Amino acid sequence: MADTGKSSPHVRWGVLGTGWISTMFTSDLLAARPDAPARHTIAALGSSSLEKGNAFVDKVWAKTPDQPRPQVYADYRGVYDDPNVDVVYVGTPHSLHKQNCLDAIAAGKHVLCEKPFTINAKEAQEVVDAARKKGVFIMEAVWTRFFPLFKALYEEIHVKKSIGNVQRFFIDFGNKMPLDTLPANSRLKDPALGAGALLDIGVYSLTYASIILGDFKVGKEHPKIERVTSSLDIVNGMDEANVVVLDYAAAAGGNKTAVCTSTFRTRGAQEFARIEGSTGSIVLFGLVVSVPGGFRVIEGLQPGMGEADTRSERVFNIEKPEGTLGFFWEADAVAEDIANGRTENATMPLDETLRMMKLMDGIRQAGGLSYPQDQQ
């Protein structure tokens, strides 16, 4: 099993799936990080065929040929049963998450499951109940939550109070997808696979809004959302774009509001979000919403016509090893939790996963978006 040494926990991973997300996650774990707080080994890979699995390994390991290659299985069962696997990383399409998690849990494995955790809250609760009963670690892989960005934002907003009281938040995740050329059974188009912008990328916009307007509190500690207003642009049974407005009670009275958008129709701007406070603002930027690069703090308000501009500005940039995206931060957190005997993570606890799934269920219900799993 995993090394529980306090200085440098070591986790052996079994990876399910060979798509983009599994490729990026695995590549990040293989990258050299001399000061990493945990060590990671990819011990096994589950794919639909040996040919596909071996091709994945040849591609991903090309840049790090010195790293040990994993045992490749032509199914997922081999990963669950492999005694050299401590944690199963679920990087399969959304619709498979529930069963993949349940199978891994039944085999006594710890689990890191890609977002969205499941299709709906009912499925999520079933997985959470199974993990808690078995006593294994499980976490939804909302990897962006583990970026140093959020600790830095907390420092600016709640410690330094650099922008006063937060009043409004705007965020847009535009990720252009070639929907017209994709087959009907693509995970990005097929409702049976949980297709749609809300579950795929809208969850990131909602995550940022929850963190910023929810005062960085998660799960049962998260403040009540006073009102949720939404609009889904549904085409062929899946939402190609959406707008969600979240209203939270403000400490000074009234509401503070988040406007969250996501779309498959266009690529969003690199300056993807803005936090507006009573005495300043913070602009977030990066490759995309899920891969933030940092933020600009603007102390002082936008001058009116004829007024002098007295604002000051400074920048916070996220530093990470060249060629990596940042998946290793969540993997390190998993390793440390397991080494310390924890079965869930404080940054992304299971109650937070259930809360977010219920929020998205409500948005879909209000917008008339239903998946086959909702009827089961």
TrEMBL record:
Pfam families: GFO_IDH_MocA, GFO_IDH_MocA_C3. Residues 11-139 form the Gfo/Idh/MocA-like oxidoreductase N-terminal domain. Keywords: Oxidoreductase. GO terms for molecular function: D-xylose 1-dehydrogenase (NADP+) activity; nucleotide binding. Signal peptide: none annotated. It catalyses: D-xylose + NADP(+) = D-xylono-1,5-lactone + NADPH + H(+). The keyword Thylakoid does not apply. It is an enzyme of class 1 (oxidoreductase). Residues 161-283 form the GFO/IDH/MocA-like oxidoreductase domain. It comes from the Eukaryota. Its EC number is 1.1.1.179. InterPro entries: Gfo/Idh/MocA-like_OxRdtase_N, Gfo/Idh/MocA_domain, GFO_IDH_MocA-like_dom, NAD(P)-bd_dom_sf. The keyword Oxidoreductase applies. Belongs to the Gfo/Idh/MocA family. This is D-xylose 1-dehydrogenase (NADP(+), D-xylono-1,5-lactone-forming). It comes from Thyridium curvatum.
